[in-house]
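Dear support,

I submitted the protein below through the web form. The confirmation email said the job was done, but the results page showed an empty box. After a refresh the structure appeared. I'm attaching both so you can tell me whether what I see now is the final result or a partial one.
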Amino acid sequence: HTEPDAEGRSTVCFKEEGAEFWEAELEAISLQKPLSERTVHRLELTDLEPATTYSFQVGEFGRVYKFRTMPADLDENPVVFATGGDVQAIPQFLEEMNRVVMDYDLDFLAWGGDLAYANGFIPERWEWWFEANMNTLIDDDGRVVPIIVGIGNHEVTEGYYTNYDDYEPTDEWRAIAAPFYYELFAFPGHPGYGTLDFGDYMSFVLLDTNHTGPVEGAQTEWLEAELIERSQRGVTHIFPIYHVAAYPSHRNFEGSIHVAVREHWVPLFEAHGVKVAFENHEHTYKRTHPILAGEVHEDGIVYIGDGAWGVPTRSGDNKDAWFIDQFASQRHGIVVTIHNDRHEAVVLNNNGEVIDEYTGQNP
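What the results page shows now:
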């Protein structure tokens, strides 16, 4: 949030760190924040150098912040990110977990839904969410750690599109059902799913598990095309991230959305080079055995997460199920380091203690 200047504009200046003069002053697009008098200002920076730190200043605010671009490849340094979901049932829990993962010099965070628990109509909860992240996701040097966000049931006024009698697969309908999600975040935007590419070494595939549109049909067709293109291009790390789990650690394994994800998406993951999928919604921690065609198999996919970043945890009714390798009823964040040939995950609880570690090889 920024206030526009006297001419009604909101601007951002930026430059490479250490440069004497600002490289450019850009004007943002201004959007009215839903159910609020505040304004969201959005702009896109292009033609930046990889693996470079930039300084930026917003409007008339005096403080200069920084951001760091991603590398062009993984030859020099690995990339480090943290992931999880079910982020802020309790703001203090959010801040606590953020502080734990910030010790790892993150390049970015990726959260798979249930962000502010605002349910599409409680603007105050988004105020708390932004304040908590401002308090914790800016390092001592002023570098802002960016966030990638997917959609969950607590972004939507009725949780799932199937709960509406007037559902339509349109931008207008989605903007009413999940106003904050679609107005506050530029990516993935409509229709609630999208792919973010990092060179040819990593792609994040954000998906919508029946929140503002169905798993099956157009989304599955889109997903297949996205995965085919990236597997043909030889993208090393393809990471699906979504809210409702294919392999839930707590809820009914035969629940309709869990089944839909396994029927429509999992075969595509298996066919096109996915090695890890990030799941949420269960308020526990789980890591599955590698699974292929519905069975434990050394060449299968590991499903990790289950969403307990900033929420009270659950008991994990499925913790002894055939697909569970590791389980903990603890709040957690997953710090992932990717190299050219492997990915390494360290799972930390809210006290900063390591509760699981996992390394997977890429083909």
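Response: this is the final, complete result; the empty box was a page-load delay. Residues 99 and 155 are 24 Å apart (CA to CA).
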